[in-house]
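Format notes (please read before filing issues)

Several people have asked whether sequences and structure tokens are stored in separate files. They are not. Every record keeps both together, in the order shown below: the sequence lines, then the token lines. Line labels are part of the format and must not be stripped during preprocessing.
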Amino acid sequence: MVSPLGGDVDSTFAACAEGKSGVRELTRFDPTGLPCRIAGQVDDRHIDPVDPVDPRGVGPERESAGARPHRLLLTAARQAARHADLATIAPRDRIGVVMGGHGGSTSPEEIGRTVRHWDAAGRTDLGALARDGGHDPHSFDDRRCDHAPARVARDLDARGPVVPIVSACAASAQAIGEGARLLREGRADAVVAGGVEAHLTYSGFVGFILLGALVKRYASPEKASRPFDRRRNGFVMAEGAAVVVLETLAHAQARGAPVLGEVLGYGESADAYRITDVHPQGLGAILAMERALADARLSPDDVQYVNAHGTSTATNDPAETLAIKQVLGARAKSVPVSSNKSMLGHTIGAAGAVEAILSWKGMRAGIVLPTINYEVPDPKCDLDYVPNEARRLDHRVVLSNSFGFGGQNACLCLGRAG
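Then the structure lines:
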């Protein structure tokens, strides 16, 4: 994991357990004049440097605005591969890669270089464009959603199925779920699964401002993300990457790999409602959670904690609360629910994998992470949101929710190993 609170899983989890916030004033570009000027940014020191020469001899690697997601994802993927000792698995064509994400952004400078040589009639002077410092042809690859998982496959020499998942905030939860399906179907022996997001560029950021999704009123950056609190008024955009190595239990045990947790079940659904709003009654969220439990062959009575999508928006939090109450029934108010986004911001394409890993880590540590900045209760949000401080809890079964723009919903039912 690479997150606004650390360069790996342990440092991120430790900071979250202390209730720290990774939200700060934006420095990736100048946000002067924008109604939102904060984000969850990854410290550059945590990101692997660009390789000076492509190891396959394709050509020199380079940095660009669009390349940052790939660097983040490769950093997290290499961490996971080292921890799982992935290099010892053979044959390599039995290792798959399933990643959620949305490609890279184009910077205003890159746009400016291109449009200077384009006229209103739609004509482009390619010769002049090349003489003017050129348009980096690799920037097209950086914006492709399939490019990041392909680079991970190349970097780790994973020659099995490579599947990009493009489903907004549900993307990396779906990547883990679909990776588990590849294993169940016998199409791979191991799957590298997760996701990435790095759209803290002017073009990537302004789009969410125009949608009215980002927070506008906050006393300080650290206080801005406040899921389920009555004073919430939008989410905080963040960047990051998170990756797991999935195997069948038999395969992992046969090679002596560390087993950190289980994917017990996976459910997905669509709201079929509006492109930027969740269904107000949480119908799609209910379906995803019920399907995850059915896939795990568990009942709502088995759920001991819910890692909520919890975006800190006026629409998501009440709808998710309704959905949790519908699924868990009479037990809903006694099951702890919390949002990691209160501390990390919303890492969008990486969020599902980030939250799954923190859920597994919490089960192993016997800790439920808090929802920080919970100060003013909302009558529409009336569950136990683990306010402001982590809680000791011996728990073995977690539902981890990820609900994306477009009404794309995913829920992972996760279990503690052993």
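For reference, the curators noted about this record: DSSP finds 13 helices and 13 strands in the chain. The radius of gyration is 21 Å.
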